Amino acid sequence: MNSRAVFPSLPGAAEVAVALTFDVDGEAPWLGEGPENSRRLTLLSQGRFGPARGLERVLDLLAELDIRATFYVPGHTADHHPEAVVAILAGGHEVGHHGYLHRSSESLDVSGQRAELEEGLSALSLHGVRPLGYRSPGWELTPETLGMLAELGFSYDSSLMADDRPYWETSGTAPLLELPGHWSLCDWPYFGWTPYHGGLLADPAAVERIWLEEFESARQEHRIVTYTMHPEAIGRGYLLRMLRRVIIGMLDGGRPWFATHAEIAALARPATS
Ligand SMILES: [Zn+2]
User: Fold this and answer.
1) Which of 88, 69, 68 lies closest to 26, judged by CA?
2) Rounded CA gap, 5 and 185, in Å?
């Protein structure tokens, strides 16, 4: 049985905490699916757009609005696009763990899962990053992963969805703070079209309404809410304009505290204390 995490009043008497999070997947998900994708230059270039082009737009918008965010970076992205990690850190943002080659936990045995975690840690360590937060590639976790996260010293995760409020995940070997996201609050199901995975290529105005409605719900309930995006999707010009409208709408609609997952996790307390 998981238990809710308790938060004291938010900084600045904020009504709601908003975590903007970005998964800088790059080419890793496609290469991680299998070696046959290493010849698919268009597919790989679609992934490369994230760190090579979309990320800059995202960072510029966050700098303009003075917002700090959390970037979950696969080790492969850190190794092959080191300038992306440098730029994220230069902006004062948090870097979290997102696997090495973005391999899905459920497709790996225990040693394979451990290798993904350890290789991801090694790649980030070259940038002086020791992440405390983890987001599983493809948002799937196994019981073994949870056990390893505690063992490797992670203190929070952003992969599970049992609540829309932070909670303590207790099925691993030690309590882990869960900062839940959801597919509906992620850009990929709406905009992450690929030739064989499909996608919607949705109307951004519709997604803008959904995301702002969720913000208003979170504001009324004084919740913490996580939005998940990918520079290769949200970093397209028309979607960056949507993200700007969403953030401005939040600032106009209440008193949000835009925070990194690390900042939010630092405030979390057990329900009983
Ligand atoms: Zn990812």
Assistant:
1) 88
2) 21
